[in-house]
């Protein structure tokens, strides 16, 4: 969909993941071939560009940056199989294999947090560290759970005929702003509209079922939790529980709500860069190969 304005975006391409499907990927090479790789995983209802566009350039000054649109979101894989967060984690591993990435930091925002942690859980030799932003080990009965619950009858009930405005309203609640306002809102609507409404609804249900508290304490890679301190969708207390349950995890606070990656980018982006740098240089981090 053409829009009057859109941010400057790095080159992107459609990549086929054998046996899985095709997805849309962006890649920034970083300052030199030895730069650590960070793979960015976006949140529910949005795509990689909408979640991460304010962060691309700042991260690329220090890291090789790779993004993926998750299943059913943006231009991600389309599948008749019911949406599973574990499949998204396996997609991340398949993408890294396709790009000859042996080891990487995985940074996840909101829904991307569970996917990041599942990537570590299922593909441990791949993951050098985790950066977990505005996310939690459990979502049901939280603000996010209430948003998920209220959205599902609208989104799932109408299936593939779901009015775009219904999805935009849910995304707007998560981002903490009205998406019809201004150039950013119009561009945001165009990105949200790329998603498959059935898969997005199923993703919301999957988030509501997610609970990895039984193995959080097993995470053994450097981890930083970027805690959004005014978050109404994923309460800061849940984010604190996440950090306190992972051995050695550090916390970086950002004075922002759940949409802080966009609406408070001046505060969020420096915190994200600092978190990635902390993970990349943490004692005990494995030697990286490129």
Report on the architecture of this protein.
The chain has an 8-stranded mixed β-sheet, sandwiched between helices. The chain has 290 residues and is α/β, with parallel strands linked by helices. It has helices at residues 48-52, 56-60, 85-98, 112-122, 143-158, 164-175, 182-192, 197-209, 236-245, 260-263, 265-280, and strands at residues 12-17, 21-28, 37-41, 64-68, 104-109, 127-133, 223-228, 250-254. Residues 147-162 have low confidence and may be disordered.
Short description:
The chain is of the alpha/beta class and 290 residues long. It has helices at residues 48-52, 56-60, 85-98, 112-122, 143-158, 164-175, 182-192, 197-209, 236-245, 260-263, 265-280, and strands at residues 12-17, 21-28, 37-41, 64-68, 104-109, 127-133, 223-228, 250-254.
- Rg over CA atoms: 17 Å
Mean pLDDT level = 87
* Helical content band: 40-55%
Shape by Cα distribution: globular
What sequence of helices (H) and strands (E) makes up the elements?
A: EEEHHEHEHEHHHHEHEHH
Distance between the termini: 36 Å
Main sheet characteristics: 8 strands, mixed
What is the tally of beta strands?
8
Strand order of the largest sheet: 1-2-4-3-5-6-7-8
Task: Please identify the structural class as seen in this structure.
Answer: alpha/beta
Low-confidence stretches: 147-162
Counting H and I runs of at least 4 residues, what is the number of helices? 11
The fraction of residues assigned to DSSP E strands is 15-25%
């Amino acid at each position: 969909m053409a829009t009057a304005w859109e941010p400057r975006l790095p080159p992107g391409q459609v990549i086929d993941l054998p046996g899985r499907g095709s997805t849309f990927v962006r890649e920034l090479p970083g300052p030199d071939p030895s730069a650590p790789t960070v793979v960015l995983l976006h949140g529910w209802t949005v795509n990689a560009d909408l979640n991460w566009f304010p962060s691309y350039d700042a991260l690329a000054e220090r890291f090789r940056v790779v993004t993926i649109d998750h299943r059913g979101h943006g231009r991600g894989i389309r599948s008749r199989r019911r949406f599973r967060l574990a499949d998204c984690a396996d997609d991340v591993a398949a993408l890294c294999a396709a790009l000859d990435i042996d080891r990487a930091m995985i940074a996840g925002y909101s829904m991307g947090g569970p996917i990041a942690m599942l990537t570590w859980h299922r593909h441990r030799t791949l993951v050098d560290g985790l950066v977990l932003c505005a996310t939690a080990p459990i979502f049901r009965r939280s603000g996010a759970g209430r948003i998920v619950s209220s959205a599902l009858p609208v989104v799932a009930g109408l299936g593939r005929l779901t009015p775009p405005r219904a999805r935009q309203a849910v995304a707007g609640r998560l981002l903490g702003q009205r998406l019809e306002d201004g150039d950013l809102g119009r561009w945001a609507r165009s990105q949200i509209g790329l998603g498959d409404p059935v898969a997005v609804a199923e993703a919301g249900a999957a988030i509501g079922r997610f609970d990895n508290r039984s193995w959080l304490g097993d995470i053994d890679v450097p981890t930083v939790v970027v805690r959004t301190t005014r978050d109404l969708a994923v309460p800061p207390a849940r984010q604190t529980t996440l950090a306190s349950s992972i051995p050695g995890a550090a916390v970086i606070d950002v004075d922002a709500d759940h949409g802080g990656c966009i609406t408070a980018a001046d505060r969020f982006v420096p915190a994200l860069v600092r978190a990635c740098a902390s993970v990349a240089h943490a004692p005990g981090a494995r030697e990286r190969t490129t």
